[in-house]
Structure formats: structure tokens, C-alpha cells
């Protein structure tokens, strides 16, 4: 049974609470989105011939990110990546408990997607060893890199790529309606471009959940090198999240126009108050020279005029 998520479990960029959605539907959206990304990101290079493939695997993965965010972003925010969730946590846009649950759901979804692909590989008679086939999509460095990239190069690229993706996500989602419109396109295109570079170096995923999913079903070397593809993207995401957190905490001063408008409003209020006081003073002065009944009637009339003026000025409902 799902329960409503606390207000700060999901915050809008301006600090207002997001629409209360049950935690279970949000986790289901994150898990299914991660499954979709694993199937698209790993399945396209697994089952296609690069020379004849109409859509490069990097572009296919980017399109999958965009589609998943458009489909499920309004439910969970469309992270589908523990690095993105960590960036949101450090930027102050999600609570720690919800972030941990998101990461677990993303990992489960990616593993289920990779398991489905592994099961399909086992049914193909032309592929005798499914784990060897998965080696072609597993992240690696050194002798397991396409260009023999050393550890330092892979760490720097993973850190930079994850930081860029998280920064693009946080920046695009800061726009009004960004999660539904701007963010999916911006994040998908950024991911596709970075993934094209990452695949040329060593199948860098910029996504710890996808890295785990591909390593589990590959040979032993992939698990041994997995720590790099967990630590580096999370470090990059942490940098981007902290930068956005600092920027939002420091903030910017209110626009001059807003300050002047506030001052003008205050001046108008003072003028209205002075007018009300003058009306009351006039009524009191007349009351001294007239009979009590006439004075009371005049004061009531003056008070009615004042209340009517306040009503039309928007001060009284």
C-alpha cells in the first residue's frame, strides 16, 4: 500500500512542494524507466550490426532517455540514474530516504532489463556464450577498453560526463514545466552526445545502475572494474548537485522593479490610510456641532464610504 510522499520528498525548483504522489508509483516509474533504458542502451549494440544499423546505439539510448522522461517524468521526476538522483539530493530537491529508494528501484529495473536481454541471448543458437556477448557492452578500461584507455582517462571522462548530465537536468528542470518539456529533450540529447564519446573509449555508461546491470551478466573482469563506474559518476553528480545547491542558497537579490513596486504599494496603502483617517476626523468634527442622531448618521455614512472604497481597492473581500 502506497502512502503519500512527504512534501520535501519532491520539491519544485522554486522550493514549492510537488504534487503529492504515492511513493510506490514513483518507485515503479523509476524501475520501469530504468528497465527501458537498459533494454535500449544494451540491446541495440547487442543485437545490431554497427555497419548496417540505421540508428547508432548512442542516439538510441538518448532517444530512450527522452521517451522515458516524457512518459514518467510527471510521476517521479524521470531520474532513471542514481547519479541524477544524487545530484537532486545534494541540490536539495529530494529527501535522503526517497533518494535511497529511487536508487534501489533504478538498480532493480536495470538488472531486470539486462536479465531479459541475457535470457534472449541464451535462446540464440548462433551465440554459444552469452557472457562473452555481454562483454561487448560492459564498461571497462585498460585492456578492456576499445582504445586501451587508462584508468585516469576513464575516471575523468565518467566524472565529467555525469556532472554534465546532472547539470543539464537540474538546469533544464529549473524552467517552468521543465520536467515535462525542456528537460527530456535536453537530457536525452546530452546523454546521446556523451555516450557516443564514452562508447568510443570503453562503453562508459555515465549511469551506475546500467554499469551494474551490464557487469553482472558479463565476465569476471567487468565486476572487478565496476567500482570505477560507480565512484566516478557519483562524484561528478555530487559536484554538479553541490554547485546548484550553493547557487540556490546564495540566490540573487529581488529585481529592482519588484522592490519599487513594493515601495509603491506601501505608499498607496499609506495614502489610503490617511484618507480613511481624514474621513473619520471630519465625521468627529461634525459630531461636535450636530445633534447626536445626526452625528451618528453622518459617521455611519462616512464609514460605509470608506468600506466601499476598500472593497473596490481590493482590501476588503
Describe what is shown at a glance.
The chain has 317 residues and is mostly helical. The protein has 12 helices and no strands.
Q: What does the model show?
A:
Helix content is 70%, strand content 0%. It has helices at 23-47, 57-76, 82-90, 96-122, 130-135, 151-173, 182-201, 208-216, 220-224, 228-250, 256-289, 292-312. The longest helix has 34 residues, at 256-289. The chain is elongated and about 110 Å long. The two termini are 43 Å apart.
DSSP strand tally: 0
Oligomer description? single chain
What general form does the structure show?
A: elongated
- Chain-averaged pLDDT: 79
- Main β-sheet, in a few words? none
Q: Which class of secondary structure composition applies to the elements?
A: mainly alpha
Give the low-confidence spans.
Answer: 1-8, 253-269, 283-290, 311-317
Q: Terminal Cα separation, in Å?
A: 43 Å
Percent of residues in beta strands: under 5%
Q: What attributes characterize this protein structure?
A:
single chain, 317 residues, 12 helices, disordered N terminus, disordered C terminus
Lay out the secondary structure.
Blueprint: H1 23-47, H2 57-76, H3 82-90, H4 96-122, H5 130-135, H6 151-173, H7 182-201, H8 208-216, H9 220-224, H10 228-250, H11 256-289, H12 292-312
Amino acid at each position: 500500500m502506497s502512502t503519500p510522499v512527504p512534501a520535501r520528498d519532491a520539491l519544485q525548483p522554486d522550493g514549492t512542494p510537488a504534487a503529492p504522489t504515492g511513493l510506490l508509483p514513483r518507485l515503479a516509474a523509476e524501475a520501469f524507466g530504468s528497465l527501458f533504458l537498459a533494454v535500449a542502451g544494451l540491446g541495440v549494440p547487442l543485437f545490431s550490426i554497427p555497419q548496417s544499423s540505421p540508428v547508432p546505439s548512442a542516439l538510441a539510448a538518448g532517444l530512450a532517455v527522452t521517451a522515458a522522461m516524457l512518459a514518467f517524468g510527471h510521476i517521479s521526476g524521470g531520474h532513471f540514474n542514481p547519479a541524477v538522483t544524487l545530484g537532486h539530493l545534494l541540490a536539495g530537491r529530494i529527501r535522503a530516504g526517497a533518494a535511497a529508494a529511487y536508487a534501489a528501484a533504478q538498480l532493480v529495473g536495470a538488472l531486470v532489463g539486462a536479465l531479459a536481454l541475457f535470457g534472449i541471448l541464451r535462446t540464440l543458437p548462433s551465440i554459444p556464450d552469452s557472457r562473452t556477448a555481454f562483454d561487448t557492452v560492459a564498461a571497462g578500461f585498460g585492456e578492456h577498453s576499445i582504445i586501451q584507455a587508462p584508468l585516469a582517462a576513464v575516471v575523468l571522462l565518467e566524472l565529467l560526463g555525469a556532472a554534465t548530465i546532472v547539470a543539464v537536468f537540474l538546469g533544464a528542470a529549473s524552467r517552468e514545466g521543465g520536467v515535462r518539456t525542456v528537460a527530456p529533450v535536453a537530457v536525452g540529447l546530452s546523454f546521446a552526445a556523451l555516450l557516443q564519446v564514452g562508447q568510443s573509449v570503453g562503453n562508459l555508461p555515465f549511469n551506475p545502475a546500467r554499469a551494474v546491470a551490464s557487469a553482472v551478466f558479463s565476465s569476471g573482469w567487468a565486476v572487478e572494474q565496476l567500482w570505477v563506474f560507480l565512484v566516478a559518476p557519483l562524484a561528478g553528480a555530487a559536484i554538479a548537485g553541490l554547485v546548484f545547491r550553493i547557487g540556490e542558497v546564495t540566490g540573487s537579490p529581488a529585481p529592482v522593479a519588484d522592490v519599487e513596486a513594493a515601495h509603491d504599494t506601501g505608499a498607496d496603502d499609506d495614502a489610503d490610510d490617511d484618507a480613511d483617517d481624514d474621513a473619520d476626523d471630519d465625521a468627529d468634527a461634525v459630531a461636535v456641532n450636530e445633534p447626536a442622531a445626526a452625528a451618528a448618521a453622518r459617521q455611519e455614512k462616512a464609514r460605509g464610504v470608506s468600506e466601499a472604497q476598500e472593497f473596490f481597492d481590493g482590501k476588503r473581500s
